[in-house]
Amino acid sequence: MTAVRIDPIGHNDRRFGWALTAPGLTALTLVVAGPLLWTIYISTVGYTLVNPGYDFVGIDNYRAAFAEDYFGDSLLVTVKFVVAVVIIEFLIGFTVALMLNSVTRFKDVYYLILLMPLLINPVVVAQIWRMFLHPELGIVNYVIGLVGVPKINWLGDSRIAFWTVVLVDIWHQVSFMIILLLAGLSALPREPFEAARMDGATTLQAFFHVTLPLMRPVIVVTLLIRLIFAVKTFDLVFIMTRGGPGTATDLISYFIYRSAFYGLDIGQASAISVILLVVVLALTAYLYRYMRSLA
Amino acid sequence: MKRLLLTAGFVLAATTGVQAQTVHILMETVPDTKYIQDLLPEFKAATGIDVDIEAISYIDMHSKLVPQLTAPTGSYEAIVVDFYWVAEFTKAGWLMPLDDLIKRDNVDTSVYVPSLMNLVGKVNGTTYMLPFYNYSMGIIYRKDMMNDPKEQAAFKAKYGIDLKVPTTWDEYQKQVEFFSRDTDGDGKIDFYGTVNQGQRGDCICMQWSNYLYANGGQYHDKNWKATFNSDAGIKAIEDYKNDIAKHGPTGAESYCFDEASSVFGQGKAYSFVTFNVLLAGFDDPSSSQVVGKADIEPNPIGGLNGGWGWAIPKSSGDKEAAWKFIKWVESKETIKKRTLAGGAPTQAWVFDDPDVLAKRPNMPMLKQLVETAQEFPTFTYTVDFVEALGRELNLAVTGQKDAKTALDLAADEFNKLAKKDGLLKE
Questions:
Q1: Of A49, A50, A154, the CB nearest to B251
Q2: H helical segments located in B160-307
């Protein structure tokens, strides 16, 4: 009888919980799960904008995607881009975060300055940098010209353009790393550091044996989030290079955009999106498991 | 509470009751859009209809339009259609045929330049659009330099021919070479014979088409089989590469027309193969250092034709209001005002209008340019083809591929798309 009396309360709690989360869950289902399932469905039908139809084509869209000229190049460029921006931004971000962590005065000013690029819309960032990097009329070549450096063909040379886009992405996104890592650093307990100092550890030893292990979960999360965003980079190449010179900066997101809006093939564009989703999910799952194993 | 509800209901009823008719149009941020915006109060006064023009950059237009055209009722009552979307939009059935309205209201479509009516007016005998403005390509050049007697003498001494509006491509290329100069003596060219817009995508495709035609090339034969991977195509790529490397500014292989026109507008180049509508901007003191010094000449064999047409999408929420607007904007009175302001018209008579000629003496040259311009292949997959061709041309121009391999691949892609569209049969 007692159990019967307690149960309704628990039941009520659960119902109340469901009622509270229902609006959020409904919204998520509508804006996340709905389009996601729809994309997976569309990737299996022959839907084009010129001839919208829902005839089932199985894996034809996937096969056609892999058969596209330069699909492999685009995947490779994307992997290179993601690895480059995530690693470089992490190294810069962690260094700056460590430096800022020991700063006591004007911390807010530094935060404000660091946050500024992050607050600018990527399209605006790309437009600004395209003007800055104009080889003839841009300020960058003008300034380096003052010290005798010859004009650099920032976006027209296939060997340089990729790194130019990486550099602009770093300028835009590195503060994201700094802010997250700095938040992690300032939340670390003081005791292990004091104990290390008592035991005579040097600064480097303290960093490698105390800071890094304690920061590992934060680092993994930061890398994970940045990685997911990096895979989706679109605006920079769309505005600055249109994937060129040649295919030097042809990221997969722009490839998908072209399939959908230039090729008018929504089925194939959905198939490539699903491939991308699977890759990102696999990476996320791996990093998530790694993070849990640390915990 | 009751009073509050009543008031709210009244306000709601009143606002819906007096809601004015509005024609929403998505347009490109170009001078002709601006000229029309300036004239809109006249349309409002005559009809009571508001026109809301959303002006954005070209690269965002197609992707913004398509979802609106596929929706049962889109956000735009009227649209403007670039020539290379025409086949795609009509094949998908997104545009409303205008023939009945033209007949009903006795609109005279014979006033349009035939090449433009063909480009952005009729498709297979049905009128889907009224031509809006032309952006046929020509060669914008520095007339002050061409007309300078010292330059003329030096040119004659070097090449044995007169320095004048060129009648052959070779003559133009000689001028490009002649005017490429090292003005500060550091061993590098810093005044450029020409400036290219070689960015991957439509920028390079549009400009390179002029090089192709100038070398006697064509995109396809009568059966829609690609022919641009010919010797003429290869020579066109070599000329283009040569112009960038020897006679052009650093980075021209990544410029679109805006970066390229900045170089010309800053007085750093002699010529620029581009859209005729850009000429007006070089006479604007707020953005140009070459005010009064630039003019336009046709490409010797005929440049690339280009234009936009007014259309009413089937998803239009108010087709009558849209048609009223199109009739007004293409009326003789409005066309004349727009042309006097600097616009690029599509109706033939306005090129010969005495008032227009008095203000814009280069109208005969523009007329010749429009009349001799050649067409880019327009079919359902033009946009897709432009991407493939733009990529291959850019690969060739940046030295990542040789010209023949790049053109062969683009030609294969063209044949594949033409076959998919039912044009190439083999």
A1: A154
A2: 169-179, 202-214, 231-247, 257-265
